[in-house]
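Re: weekly structure request thread

Next one in the queue (178 aa):
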Amino acid sequence: MLAIASCKEKEAQQDIIVPPPVEEAKKGPQEMSQTKQRHEVDWQGAQYVVSIDRSADTSLPLVSDESGQEYYDNTIHLRIQREDGSDFVNRTFKKSDFVSYVRGSGMEKTGALLGIVYDKIENGRLVFATSIGSPDFRSDEFVPMVMTLDRNGNFSVTLDTQLDSDSSEDGVTGDEEA
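Done, posted below.
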């Protein structure tokens, strides 16, 4: 009886061996997804078509996310066509066009040109939301900017310091408590 009990006791004391964690091998440089936007806008009393295409550019310096994963930076092609099909604007943007606005944030080296998105017409100008930030789509690290285009084709850029909040429509202002 004792022999059987001691055998069962030995079986219950089996060593469990856990394999060491396997470090994921870094992948080569990744590309952010390609995007295409198209908007028809009534501006200055005429119809315009605003086309914005983002694509990875392998000729630009690589950027990286917080984990060190490398990505190709992007170029964004902005084309605004008049009703007759002629170009009002036909320009390709790179991060270098906006880097002076993100100096000191660290994004000038590690960030990618994330996007240019048509927003609205304000004071006779086309307004675009623009950003440079982490190339990892799961990250929320970015520097928002506002790019405007006047009727003469001149661009201007400012940092976007206004929060995207509709609280003023609810009757709440910055001085009041909700």
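Confidence is low (pLDDT under 50) at residues 166-178. Strands lie at 35-43, 46-56, 63-64, 70-71, 74-81, 87-93, 112-122, 125-133, 142-149, 155-159.
Next request, please.
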